[in-house]
């Protein structure tokens, strides 16, 4: 069976300094506040760090939920970059990842969020891959907007 790669990246400029944006990006327990499909953290670390693991309950489609077990495979405080991976989950999606990059620009900061997966592309799963791709595209755009609102609120509240 072949595999289909799905990847979507969205960026947003946040009216906040890089330190504030990076702190929010690293705050794993806060992911349900801005990652739309994350319903709850089941196991969590306080802060993303290379090698850290966490589990979340995620809405897949409609009422269907699953538990994703994630590993932070890279969290580079100097480069303001992190990559998380979720592998060998049940179903047609065998690998998922998300990448976050923070780029400082004075008092404003660009936040890049990429999410993707590698799905098996058999005759029964091909339609699912199309649905996932659309969901990732629209969901990721909403995720970066929620993220920016949280970071900007943190700056205003001091």
UniProtKB/TrEMBL annotation:
CDD domains registered for this protein in UniProt: SRPBCC
SUPFAM superfamilies per UniProt: Bet v1-like
Superkingdom field: Bacteria
A Pfam family that the UniProt record links to this protein: Polyketide_cyc2
Protein name per its UniProtKB record: SRPBCC family protein
Organism: Nocardioides immobilis
């Amino acid at each position: 069976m072949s595999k289909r790669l799905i990847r979507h990246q969205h960026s947003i400029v946040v009216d906040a300094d890089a330190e504030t944006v990076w702190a929010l990006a690293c705050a794993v327990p806060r992911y349900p506040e801005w990652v739309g499909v994350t319903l709850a953290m089941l196991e969590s670390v306080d802060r993303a760090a290379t090698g850290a693991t966490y589990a979340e309950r995620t809405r897949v489609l409609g009422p269907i939920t699953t538990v994703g077990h994630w590993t932070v495979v890279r969290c580079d405080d100097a480069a303001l970059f992190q990559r998380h991976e979720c592998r060998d989950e049940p179903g047609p999606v065998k690998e998922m990842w998300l990448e976050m990059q923070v780029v400082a620009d004075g008092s404003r900061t660009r936040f890049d969020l990429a999410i993707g997966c590698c799905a098996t592309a058999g005759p029964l799963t091909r339609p699912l891959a199309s649905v996932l791709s659309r969901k990732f595209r629209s969901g990721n755009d909403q995720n970066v907007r929620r993220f920016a609102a949280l970071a900007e609120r943190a700056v205003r509240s001091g």
